[in-house]
Amino acid sequence: MDLAYIPSPSTGVVHLGPLPLRGYAFCIIIGVFVAVWYGNRRWIARGGKAGTVADIAVWAVPFGLVGGRLYHVITDYQLYFGEGRNWVDAFKIWEGGLGIWGAIALGAVGAWIGCRRRGIPLPAYADAIAPAIAFAQAIGRWGNWFNQELYGKPTDLPWALEISEGVNREAGLYHPTFLYESLWCVGTALLVIWADRRFRLGHGRAFALYVAAYCAGRAWIEYMRVDEAHHILGLRLNVWTAMLVFVLAVVYIVVSARLRPGREEVVEPAAVRQGGNGKNGENGEKDGQKGGGKGEDGIEGTEGDADSASLAAAASGGAPGSGAPSPDNDTEGDPADSGSAGRS
After folding, report:
1. Which pLDDT score is estimated for 80?
2. Which residues contact 285 (CB under 8 A, 6 or more apart)?
3. Are 2 and 160 in contact (CB under 8 A)?
4. Which band of pLDDT confidence, cut at 50, 70 and 90, is reported for residue 78?
């Protein structure tokens, strides 16, 4: 007799009159809101403007959802095409099936479009939202719990997941791989936050660290799963994908650190321009003083209004004539470390 286990919901849908409320969709939506909220705090702490993360997310989220679904449908095409299958099911995203690899890849395209429209370097934006994405994944994985999917091998551990009889599944107790991945994502987010504080990661390296850490855990968790999947040389396709992306992320970190050491001083030129005009920083003569005080966004004042050449130079890697950022001007890292957070 099993004394302890994690029960699964009897249903993943609650009907509010004619309107179906699906647990899977709720988890995805909550994850997106958390990512935008926390990403916005980190972006402000880096010297960006409030609301920028949400504006870019308008592009990134739809692209990410489409990319995640495309990856799932392409790599698991046998579930939707062929004898006895209905291709219309490929559009039923609420039934589960989002591939994180496709979501990140196509979501990055959407983020790039949003960044281009605002004159923001994509690597800086990616660094700011990296732990926020990991937290969103941790929340989104609970959608698999509602759908009773993505569980592992049978087990009698106290935290085993109870699965009921259903289509393509047998009743029993299994490893809750959705829970393992959710906890791993939380750990990944905390790792990136710590490393960002400790090493002042920039130029996309915080995002690459998130990718590498996630892939390391995903390869292990994927190996435990028992749901249907394509295999190459005895390993599941997603295991190979995780290993390949892990190597690429590590190579990026090493090469980027050599070619572009340090961190971007300016991540959003519009915030510098706004601060220089006295809207967010200290105005009057203080804006015209060399090495003027910090404004509410934590960005140091410049000599008068920054001209277009100065802004272009700042956006490409630092203010003209400036060296490495001093410890007194550290507005990066977790929002808790920056007095600028939440005041813009």
Report:
1. 85
2. none
3. yes
4. confident
User: What is the 3-class SS of the chain, one letter each residue?
Assistant: CCCCCECCCCCCEEEECCEEEEHHHHHHHHHHHHHHHHHHHHHHHCCCCCCHHHHHHHHHHHHHHHHHHHHHHHHCHHHCCCCCCCHHHHHCHHHCCCCHHHHHHHHHHHHHHHHHHHCCCHHHHHHHHHHHHHHHHHHHCHHHHHHCCCCECECCCCCCEEECCECCECCEEECCHHHHHHHHHHHHHHHHHHHHHHHCCCCCHHHHHHHHHHHHHHHHHHHHECCCCCEECCEEHHHHHHHHHHHHHHHHHHHHHHHCCCCCCCCCHHHHHHHHCCCCCCCCHHHHCCCCCECCCCCECCCCCCCHHHHHHHHCCCCCCCCCCCHHHCCCCCHHHCCCCCCC
- Give me the amino acid identity at 63: F
Q: Are 305 and 274 in contact (CB under 8 A)?
A: no
Angle (nearest 5°) at CA 71 between 172 and 58: 110
Residue 175's contacts (CB-CB under 8 Å, 6 or more residues apart) are 151, 152, 153, 154, 155, 157, 160, 161, 224
Confidence class of residue 97 from pLDDT cuts 50, 70 and 90? confident
Amino acid identity of residue 309, one-letter, is: A
> Using one digit for the tens of pLDDT, what is the confidence trace for 145-195?
998 988 999 999 999 999 998 877 889 999 999 999 999 999 999 999 999
pLDDT surpassing 80 at residue 276: no
Q: At what angle do helices 177-199 and 205-224 cross, to 10 degrees?
A: 160
**Residue 148 CB neighbours (<10 A):** 21
Distance (Å, rounded) from C-alpha 73 to C-alpha 53? 29
Sign, CA torsion 220/225/229/234: positive
**Mean pLDDT of the residues in the chain:** 81
The pTM is what? 0.77
Round to whole Å and give the CA distance between 264 and 317: 5
| Torsion sign over Cα 128, 134, 135, 139 | positive
What the block records as the tokens of 190 is 């905390």
